[in-house]
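Posting here for the record, re: pyridoxal-5'-phosphate.
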Amino acid sequence: MSALTTRPSDAEGLVDRHTPLVELKNRLDASGANLAQLSAALYKQKNAQIAANLYTQDRYCATGSDATAVICDPHHDQSRTCVSWCVNHYTGLNRHPEVLRAAQEATEQYGTGAGTSGMSGGMCDVHKQLESELARRVAKPAALLFPTGYTANLGALSALARSGDLILFDRESHASIIDGIKMSGAKWLPFRHNDVADLERKLAHHGSRYRDVLVVAESAYSMSGDFAPLADLVALKRRYQFRLYIDEAHAFGFYGQDGGGYCRQLGLSDDVDFVMSTLSKSTGSLGGFIACAEQYIPLLQWCANSYIFQACVSPADAAAALASLRLLRSPSPVVQRLHENNRYMRDALQAVGIDLKNSQSPVVPIYIDQPERLLRVNRRLYENGVFSVSVVYPAVKPSEGRIRLIVTARHSQQNIDYTVRQIVQCLASEG
Ligand SMILES: Cc1ncc(COP(=O)(O)O)c(C=O)c1O
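Prediction output follows.
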């Protein structure tokens, strides 16, 4: 595939080539640009980044997700073997022989694809076993399986609140949480990231004016790798009337007994009303779920459109997730390895003076706040065999760009040592 060709743009001259495309769109939106102007400007911006070899988002992996992979750049007809850091397969179970075998056997037994939604007969016994196991694993009475983690948040949050209710959510919440909240029709307000005092002020000021209040947070944050103050949130719940919804996408599988998540690790499963997670990360599959009291299940089934009107996960994906869950029972060697690698990576980066801020989970952010430098450093990393996509707005605030390294159980200490050396050199040479 060749580089995109430049087209004349009505918005020419508005931005420099390093501005993230959505930031550019928002600026043009504010100046009243129409669709033709927006699309031309974004086309031009992407093209400028490609021409300078700064555009990472179209790169793909020819060999599948693993610690090292062949990463192709379609715009420059290049491919390179790299240490790969951008996939959330924390435990590496997507490559485990038992997981592969389970997916193959389920395909032979049930065929490919589910064909329809769980509400219209798309589930088979393997889906039902998975729902029971997920509920048990996160120590909640019931679980409902959604096609993806994104649509679990989208559907569940749109179903759990409506006009007359209030949703307070952490400002760094994932887009799927924010989209679900917006779809609900409830009044919504963000609170400052991990700031329980700010949440309390908002509860005290607004809470009593609404019929029901829902508070939403992630247990481990996807972009910064820090943990939510879950015990404080639960303590607040004892003083104010609200329900608590926790997204465990970046903790389920490798924190807590049997990988049951961070709420379970802290002994707070009973205090959290809704535990959400995904099957695409630590269990190396696809799907999402909400675990909660039995009483909420019919409401979720009948009021979450993404549950009713979307085909459920394939039997192979359900079987792969079940096999992964068996391998995540404590003590799990892959979980131990993941935590060792995480410690090793953090120690190595901190030893060379890199500030990881509040990150603790295997999400390791290298903050580079000037957009131009971020893209240049990442270009050089790729040239030197280290790959991760540049994280820019809207995934993070415009001023908080970063290279996000996701540590997995499949990485070796040599992979880590090599990457840290390259980070140091590339940061220095692109100073
Ligand atoms: C915090 C969080 N919630 C939900 C999701 C959506 O999960 P999935 O990609 O499995 O749909 C993600 C995925 O990136 C996430 O990071």
